[in-house]
Write a structure and sequence with these properties.
This is Dihydrofolate reductase. With 193 residues, the chain is α/β, with parallel strands linked by helices. Helices cover 20% and strands 30% of the residues.
């Protein structure tokens, strides 16, 4: 498999959060269904969203995120999100001094180093790059093979863009999957090379 996927929930107008980093209603689809998505007891989705999301999550071995997201989430308290095996954090700063020593988090500089480290850790499983500035950098560098979006029915008007500050045009293939869930439209595209 060995592919790199850029992924996030996104507003119809292309934002992954507002100016204050609040995702607002972007994750309603994860809470409003009747099918448990994981063992947390917190995430419940429609059957269509489960059938699309669960197999994908099961294939992801490593998530790449930026230091900003790491700081916002307090590093998920040392537990990688969505049951991935490792998190690679793109940062110019070292990991926090008081950080969980056993946590499978790796701090690197630059998206190229992050993707290389993540691919080494992932083996033949998927590397996921969080959308936003780091995802946009990886996309612009030609390191992303596939784009996945969970499009929520909301317009933000401004905020944190799905592709970050990307300013180059890149064609995607036709949608490989278009799945309608409850309060979400799941889209999957291959990146054209």
């Amino acid at each position: 498999m060995d592919k790199v996927v850029m992924y996030a929930s996104v507003s119809v107008d292309g934002f992954i959060a507002d100016q204050n980093d609040d995702p607002g209603p972007l994750f309603e689809w994860l809470l409003g269904g009747d099918v448990p998505l994981d063992d947390s007891g917190f995430l419940n989705v429609s059957q269509a969203s489960y059938d699309y999301t669960r197999p994908y999550w099961d294939q992801v071995a490593v998530t790449i995120a930026g230091r900003h997201v790491f700081d916002l989430t307090d590093g998920w308290d040392g537990v990688p999100p969505s049951s991935v095996d490792h998190v690679v954090v793109v940062s110019h700063r070292a990991k926090p001094d008081d950080w969980h020593p056993e946590a499978p988090f790796h701090f690197v500089e630059g998206v190229e180093a992050a993707v290389a480290k993540a691919q080494q850790l992932a083996g033949d499983r998927i590397v996921e790059v969080a959308a936003g500035d780091v995802g946009g950098q990886a996309f612009a560098a030609g390191l992303v093979d596939e784009v996945r979006m969970d499009v929520a029915p909301v317009v933000f008007g401004s905020g944190k863009r799905y592709f970050g500050s990307l300013d180059v045009q890149q064609l995607l293939g036709d949608p490989e999957e278009v799945i309608q869930g409850n309060r979400v439209l799941h889209l999957r595209y291959r990146v054209q090379r």
